[in-house]
Design brief:
The protein is mainly beta. Helix content is 4%, strand content 40%.
Length: 535
């Protein structure tokens, strides 16, 4: 048989098989509509789509549904739950399920496609085998947010960097940009800060930039001032809106008494802990702990470098040496001041924004203070054996005053305070021998209030500096430990305790004692770092 005859036979057989297959495909399947719109507002709720077959419906049939991403992405924006649709004999319409994922991102209108594929042999694909699905986003247009900011002013003549942080309140599929600038409020450019301006750009999804920060220099002027503010202006937004809410940055004067454990200088007391058995510190910079010191050392945290941030530090009684871990770069230095038997009492006695090395010698009742401003040493006899030193700025002149708590005075416990402004001595009877001193500015008048915590009852007593009236609050007894500090950032010391069993802080805001908040970590601290300021 020649070659041409064989080819003719094969062609005839192929045509026959094609005719048989076409004859077997006795029905046609299509999407009911070519387009479908679903609202993300109702995300996570099933939306039905229909597939219809026409022709011979006497037999059952199946068809697959496949999704193809467009601007909408599988899993992130949508899912389908009907991969294979089954027609029963006589059934002309079946339904599939698609679900839009509800998220908070601004995405506009997104789309993807559904395709019909792999029909059973008795059914063929029709002309409407593809359906485009649109997802209508309900999320608001992104708003640009200034994430606030506070920074403690550095010591006189020094500078410290703060951050201005801005970002959209939600992800977006569009690139975003905005211009910004600073201007004077109560703070003055050139004296309190160095002005900054510029433009920030934010990447869209999937490389979303939720926040960008630019540095701003805060200047230490050494003046006795209240909190100061500067304005942050946002303008020329692209693909975003700017809320009308005020935007300002706050500069906080460096407090002259060591009642604030603020290791990042943002004006909020930190949930900082210390483990006495391992000498590990758990602070903002070292949330997982850093070893610094030994179990027998006395912790003396304070701002020794004038950058507005609390430095981890300890005093070694057997040698009289001070060790300071600088907050700005993690390096440390050591210095000698004091001797065995002394009690370390660091505070800013000269109002230069830097804590001074100082000790109280109970055996003689003498205070030794080395001024950070000029290195000179002040020697002041004030107190006696058994007194607990409690230096703080009781007269509001931004200098720490020499003060002691005399727990066993005849007739009741007494507070002896020597004013730094005039050296006048005041004596106030307030407390009992077992009480622990918790000095701080609880009323926000710029003066330290006499205060103590009573372990037996868990009560916090505060003697108001402005009128010598007093009040008390309950904050919990053992196993709680007092940890005073301004955790709410409102310029007033809060009532706070630390639970050594759970390693958590509980805080009652002094501005609203009904408000309870707190925090902490899984660290194994045995006491709060703020315990260094409790006597």
């Amino acid at each position: 048989m020649n070659k041409n005859i064989l080819l003719s036979i094969f062609a005839f057989l192929f045509l026959c098989s094609s005719f048989v297959a076409a004859s077997a495909a006795s029905s046609t399947v299509d999407f009911e509509v070519s387009q479908l719109t679903i609202a993300e507002l109702f995300g996570d709720r099933p939306v039905l789509f229909q597939v219809r077959r026409t022709g011979d419906l006497s037999e059952g049939a199946t068809v697959s549904v496949t999704a193809v991403d467009g601007t909408a992405l599988w899993i992130y924006d949508y899912q389908i739950f009907s991969r294979v649709l089954n027609f029963a004999p006589g059934q002309s319409v079946v339904e599939g399920v698609v679900v839009a994922a509800d998220d908070s991102s601004y995405e506009g209108v997104e789309s993807f496609s559904l395709l019909l594929r792999n029909p059973s042999p008795n059914m063929r694909l029709g002309s409407q085998r593809t359906m485009t699905v649109f997802i209508d986003d309900h999320d608001d247009y992104p708003k640009l947010i200034f994430y606030g900011g506070m920074k403690v002013e550095p010591g006189s003549g020094r500078q410290v960097l703060a951050s201005i942080c801005i970002g959209p309140d939600r992800p977006s599929v569009e690139p975003i940009s905005v211009s910004f600038s600073t201007s004077d409020g109560t703070a003055t450019a050139g004296a309190d800060y160095l002005p900054v301006s510029g433009t920030l750009s934010f990447e869209p999804i999937p490389r979303w930039d939720w926040q960008k920060c630019v540095p701003m220099t805060i200047l230490g002027d050494g003046l006795n001032e209240p909190r100061e503010t500067l304005n942050i202006s946002l303008f020329n937004p692209v693909n975003a809106e700017i809320p009308n809410s005020p935007r300002y940055f706050t500069i906080i004067n460096n407090l002259p008494y060591s009642q604030q454990i603020d290791t990042d200088g943002n004006g909020f007391a930190d949930y900082a802990g210390y483990d006495q058995t391992s000498a590990n510190w758990f602070t903002y910079q070292y949330p997982h702990g850093i070893h610094f010191g030994s179990p027998t050392d006395t912790i003396v945290p304070a701002d020794y470098t004038g950058d507005g941030q609390t430095d981890s530090a300890f005093w070694r009684s057997e040698t009289g040496d001070w060790y300071v871990l600088r907050s700005e770069d993690g390096s440390y230095y050591a210095d000698h001041f004091g001797t065995t038997g002394d009690i370390p009492v660091p505070a800013d006695f000269d109002a230069d924004g830097i804590a001074d090395f100082a000790v109280f010698r109970p055996s003689t009742g003498v205070w030794y203070i080395r001024r950070s401003s000029d290195g000179s040493v002040d020697t002041v006899r004030f107190g006696s054996e058994g007194d607990r030193p409690t230096p703080a700025d009781f007269d509001g002149d931004w200098k720490a005053d020499i003060a002691v708590y005399r727990p066993n005075a005849a007739g009741g416990s007494e507070w002896w305070i020597r004013g730094s402004s005039d050296s006048a001595v005041s004596v106030t009877r307030f407390g009992e021998a077992s009480d622990r001193t918790t000095v701080g500015d609880y009323t926000g008048d710029g003066k330290a209030d006499i205060s103590f915590w009573r372990p037996a009852s868990g009560q916090w007593f505060v003697l108001r500096s402005e009128d010598q009236s007093y009040y008390f609050r309950y904050s919990g007894s053992s196993p709680f430990m007092p940890a005073p500090g301004d955790y709410s950032g409102d310029g007033r010391s809060d009532y706070a305790n630390f639970n050594a069993s759970t390693h958590l802080f509980n805080v009652w805001a002094s501005s609203d004692p009904t408000t309870l908040f707190g925090g902490g970590s899984d660290y194994s601290a045995t006491l709060p770092v703020a315990d260094a300021n409790v006597h």
